[in-house]
């Protein structure tokens, strides 16, 4: 199963990025093969629609689970439409997020945690 | 003639110039006011028009026929605005992101996409005494002002003077408002912000190739850097309105300067004559 974790770096030790559509990287873990693959997020600086485009990119890669901090309404609609399960976690690193999810500690999301444009920085990143 | 009143900085007095110029000239010639600051139109608060009709502004957004769609994803690939996504073999549309270009319908090999109108705002028109008035109002939450602005501008008449109240700034909505004008007045104030944003606005109108001049509002506040800049750049300053608490009170009551202080009428008539002169000068220069 492919699990995508929003990250600020390219490896399992990297810090998580709490944003979905505008995260810096995705570390995609293959839970059967125990391998990790890093993908730079092309939509980090998109003018608009970053959530939709990012969700589409993950769907196209066959990702089945997403671990992130916050996700907006449009991205969630696309992910849910493709049957991708989305979890929120505050784990500090990619590895820690994966372990938390595997232990059943990540929070499944059925609705958006933030509004549109949250990841653009205006009023964002307030924790 | 189409004259747009713009500014880099907001709150410098675009509407003050538009409404006073309109009132000062309305007795002499046909005048039309188009308030294109569709995110927060305010010229009606000063001209008090009686609105007679209102028309919806719509954008053509995609509608997918799921019996024809095979989920190939071409539509989502061509969309520069991420207004379509394919998930679980089905197309999802996000009309609030759509710019109405029609690219998705064009690219769909199945002919599964048709376009349906999606409301983004209204254009209201009416009469303020002898002044023909119209403004646009974008719906709350809609990010796309230019189509509403273009809908207002389609009402521009050929004869007489049409004055456009532009949005502040120098972004797409402002360009949509200023484009195709015969002349552009840039309203500024003698403050560091006023100067900084004036420079940006000057860059924009120069890029558009539209003749322009400057009006300095609250000219007795601040410093002389705006005037120095205009001199250096050979930009004519056509009018200066000093800061006066009484003028601010007039504005706050929803009244116009030329109504409460008729001594200002000749200044606005003179402003119009200067614009006419600069436009005809430019036309002659272009003809040579």
From TrEMBL, chain A:
It comes from the Bacteria. It comes from Moorella mulderi DSM 14980. InterPro entries: Di-Nase_FeMo-co_biosynth, DiNase_FeMo-co_biosyn_sf, MTH1175_dom. PANTHER family: DINITROGENASE IRON-MOLYBDENUM COFACTOR PROTEIN-RELATED, IRON-MOLYBDENUM PROTEIN. Transmembrane segments: none annotated. This is Dinitrogenase iron-molybdenum cofactor. CDD domains: MTH1175. Residues 16-102 form the Dinitrogenase iron-molybdenum cofactor biosynthesis domain. SUPFAM superfamilies: Nitrogenase accessory factor-like.
TrEMBL record, chain B:
One of its GO terms (molecular function) is iron-sulfur cluster binding. PROSITE patterns: 4FE4S_FER_1 (PS00198), 4FE4S_FER_2 (PS51379). It comes from the Bacteria. InterPro entries: 4Fe4S_Fe-S-bd, 4Fe4S_Fe_S_CS, CobQ/CobB/MinD/ParA_Nub-bd_dom, P-loop_NTPase. Keywords: Iron, Iron-sulfur, Metal-binding. Residues 60-89, 90-118 form the 4Fe-4S ferredoxin-type domain. SUPFAM superfamilies: 4Fe-4S ferredoxins, P-loop containing nucleoside triphosphate hydrolases. This is Electron transport complex subunit RsxB.
